[in-house]
Every structure is written in structure tokens, then in C-alpha cells.
Amino acid sequence: MSGHGTPIPMTSYRAGPLSGTAGVPGDKSISHRALILGALSVGETVITGLLEGDDVLDTAKAMRVFGAEVTRDADSTWRVNGVGVGGFAEPDQVIDCGNSGTGVRLIMGAMATSPITATFTGDASLNKRPMARVTDPLSLFGARAVGRAGGRLPMTVVGAADPVPVRYTVPVPSAQVKSSVLLAGLNAPGQTVVIEREATRDHTERMLSGFGAEIVTEETEEGRVITLTGQPELRPQTIVVPRDPSSAAFPVCAAIITPGSDVLVPNIGLNPTRAGLFTTLREMGADLAYENAREEGGEPVADLRARFSPDLSGVEVPPERAASMIDEYPVLSVVAAFATGRTVMRGVKELRVKESDRIAAMAAGLRAGGVAVEDGPDWWIVEGRGHGNVPGGQTCASHLDHRIAMSFMVMGMATQSPVSVDDASPIATSFPVFEPLMAALGADIRRG
Ligand code: S3P
Predict the structure, then answer these.
(1) How far apart are CA 365 and CA 397, in angstroms?
(2) Hey, is 16 helix, strand or coil?
(3) Contact 82, 42 (CB under 8 A)
(4) 137 lies in the same domain as 192
(5) Residue of 28, 29, 97 to test ligand 1 pocket, by largest number of atoms within 8 Å of CB
(6) What's the domain count of the chain?
């Protein structure tokens, strides 16, 4: 688990051309959901391509504590023998979700409408993050939660013995909140309705439907209205987890800023609720092609081919695109430093409550590396210096945030002087093979 071990300082040196194929790991969002829905169905769900990062492993452990049998075959196939909707056992130990906001928020929802009590905790990063955004709607079902000041972990949730269905408009663009409410709605009688004004990643809806739940999404003037019929019998599934576009972002952006590079990142899901970064990079003038575009498991998929792009221009990222690239702003800000002109990112207040305050963390590291950044509560602007003109030479604090650590490692591949982070250990939460994968492409990243 990250944040509990010894910090791993890491430095990225100017790299030669990056080339080759980058097989990035499975999608983190889909991996969490596959384990949780597997645990809520009766029978054996078989999962291949699961992300074996700390965040997801913590969710697997939690599902075991709630009574599901979760095993891994030697060939990395995962099997979940679920307990059925409403079948969670009361945990006899504290559930430690490590660094994972998705894990804790989805699991709280999944247990909130069962007559059991569970106590949740996490690492120093997770224990700072707001949980009221899920415990508020979960209380409408009849659940109760007691945590630290400001609705922080550690927190105990007392599930509703007699849950009622809920109609809830999600006040912030958050797939975690939407998903938490939908998972709670599974064990409430009648119809639970979740309304989101801005579309966020829809993996929960797609997967619930795959497991046999009745779930309907309508686009209305109010936004997306999602209606779930409670107390379904979920049928176990065979799930092939696609590769994670949020992890693909790192080799793609590294290739775009590193002279001479040509990198192929195969089999990346281009679900429109996730692909905003790639659209933005193309608008900046990046040489990024979608090859072999196809459909797999109902999702648009392509092989991404990214080549060095010396003439990037700063852009204004439309705020309505934010949800579809919310985890990619840190690495976008690195690419923006190598562009000509300013890149303006607005409508991104949510970045302040991720694994770290991502605007503050990136702004501090970019400024220390010679890049001008302005920021406000829900916006930031990076002044591009143009290719070859980014000094670097700084050591950045990763604040227990995997994406901050990886973004600065990407930056160091094209700066004049190397870039360091104080602690790269959180990378293991989402991209455990980051170091060997980047090294195989030609990056020069060293511990220390
Ligand atoms: C996720 C939703 C997003 C994202 C996170 C994964 C999910 O968080 O940042 O990495 O799997 O539902 P929010 O729901 O807080 O936007």
C-alpha cells in the first residue's frame, strides 16, 4: 500500500527517442467495478486484464472481508464468487482502502443498504479527502455515517436495515458519487434515480446492465437521468478489462514531447467519457493517430500512435470536456509547458480534491522547473515555453499522488535538466509497471 512505506525518490533524465509498443495495464475504474459487481452477484465472475495495482488489490481485499471469495489464478485470471445483492457479511476488521477514493466511495455505496456496519480508513492522502459527497446521498437511503471533522476518514457507516429508494441529483461532476448511489440503489426496493448534469464516466451503468440489472439512461433537459430498478439478481459475468486510457496518457504524452519518438499504445478504450485528453492533444497539434479503430465489448477501441510533435500550440480546454479528462490535466499541463502560447484550463475545481490538490501540486513543480503558471479556485493557465526551452532541474513533491509523480517523470524526458520527485511510490496504485515500461521505450528514469 502506498503512503505507508519508505518514500522512493525518482529522477527522469533527458531521453533519446522513445520507440516501441507500450502495453499499458487494465483500466482502474473498470477493475474496481468488476470486483464489486462480481461480489454482488451469485456465482463465479471471471475477470481477465484486471489492473493489479494497489488500489484495485485493496478493493479485492475488501470484497473478501465482506464475504466474497476472490482468487487469482497463476495466469492472472481473477475469480470472484459473489454473495449476491444484499448478501454482504459484516466485516470483522477495518476496511483499508489505501490511496483509493474510487474504492472507498463505491464500497460505501455497495454496503450502505445492508444491515451491517463497516469502518473505513485509508492512507494519509485518502484520509484528507471529502466523503460527505457520498455519505450525504447514502443517508437518504437510511444509512448513517460518523467520521472525522469535515466528513473525513476514518469513518464508520451503519447500513440501512430498511432502505428506501432515492432520487438524487449529483451536485458535483463525479462518477464516484453517481456510482456509489447506484450501488446503494441495488439493495433498495423500487427505483433509484440518479441525475447528473454533466456526463461522467459511465462504466457502472454499462456494467450493471451487463450483470443483468434493469438500468435506463435518458438524456433530458435536466441532464442524464439514470433509473435503476432495485433488488435484481445479478448474474456473474466474464469480463475482459480494457487497457486504461488514463495510463496510456503517460507514454502518449512522453512520445509527443520527446524528440524523435514514435510509440504505439495498443487497445485503448476511447469511450467518449474518458477520451478528452486525446482530443485536446490533437487540437494542440500533436501527431497522435487512432489506428485500427474498432468496437470491443460495446466500447470504441483503437491503437494510439504518438509521435514527437515539435510544433504544439497552447489551447483553451472547454470546461464541458473536464469530466472526460479529469485525471489527465496533470500530464496535459506538462505537454502545455512544451507548447507555444498559453493553455487555459477552466471548470476544474474537482482537481483540488483528488489524491492531492492537483492544481497546486503541478503549479508548484512546473514553476520550480521554470514554467509560469497562474491559478485560481477552479482554473489554471500554463505559459508554454516551446519545445527545447523548458529548463527543468527541479525536485517536485508528489503528495502521495501517482499521477503527479508520473507527470513529472514525463516532464524530465524533454527538459534541459533532469526532473525529480520526492516520492514515486504511489505510482504502484495505478501503473505498477510504469518504470520497466517507460525504460523499454527508451526513457532514462532512475531511482534516487
Ligand atoms: C473515477 C472517477 C473520477 C476519477 C477517478 C476514478 C471512477 O473521480 O478522478 O480517478 O472510477 O469513478 P470523481 O468521481 O471524483 O470525479
Answers:
(1) 7
(2) coil
(3) yes
(4) yes
(5) 29
(6) 2
For residue range 296-349, list pLDDT tens digits in order.
766 789 999 999 999 999 999 999 999 999 999 999 999 999 999 999 999 999
Residue 81's domain comprises: 28-230
Q: Identify whether residues 152 and 208 lie together within a single domain.
A: yes
Output the CA 133–ligand 1 centroid distance in Å: 13
* Residue ending a domain, choose from 230, 250, 276: 230
**Does the active-site annotation cover 162?**
no
Tell me, yes or no, whether 116 lies in a domain. Answer: yes
Instruction: Provide the CB-side half-sphere exposure for 49 (13 A, CA).
Output: 18
> Based on the domain organization, do 86 and 213 belong to the same domain?
yes
CATH number, position 248: 3.65.10.10
Give the dihedral sign, CA 279/281/286/289: negative
Choosing from 27, 244, 327, 401, the catalytic residue is: 327
Do 314 and 365 share a domain, yes or no? yes
Nearest CA to ligand 1 atom 11: 29
How big is the chain by its Cα radius of gyration, in Å? 21
Instruction: Give the length of the chain.
Output: 448
Contacts of 374 (CB under 8 A, 6+ apart): 380, 381
State the pTM of this model.
0.97
Q: How far is CA 335 from the centre of its chain?
A: 20
Please report the pLDDT score of residue 4 as a whole number. Answer: 54
- Residue type for position 369: G
**Would 292 be classed as within a structural domain?**
yes
Are residues 361 and 388 located together in one domain of the fold? yes
| pLDDT digits 0-9 by tens, 388-398 | 999 999 999 99
Pocket probe for ligand 1: among 51, 100, 102, 196, the residue whose CB has the most ligand atoms within 8 Å is 102
Assign 414 to helix, strand or coil: coil
Q: At what angle do helices 434-441 and 245-257 cross, to 10 degrees?
A: 30
Domain boundary among 175, 208, 230: 230
Q: Is 289 found in the same domain as 185?
A: no
In a domain, 318, yes or no: yes
* C-alpha cell recorded at residue 396: 517536485
The percent of the chain in helix, strand and coil, each rounded to the nearest 5, is 35, 30, 40
38 shares its domain with 123: yes
Question: pLDDT digits over 253-311, tens only?
Answer: 999 999 999 999 999 989 999 999 999 999 999 999 999 999 876 678 999 999 999 99
Return the closest-CA partner of residue 250 out of 99, 448, 413.
Answer: 413
Q: What is the mean pLDDT of residues 83-104?
A: 98
As a whole number of angstroms, the distance between CA 61 and CA 377 comes to: 36
In a domain, 4, yes or no: no
What percent of the chain shows pLDDT beyond 70? 99
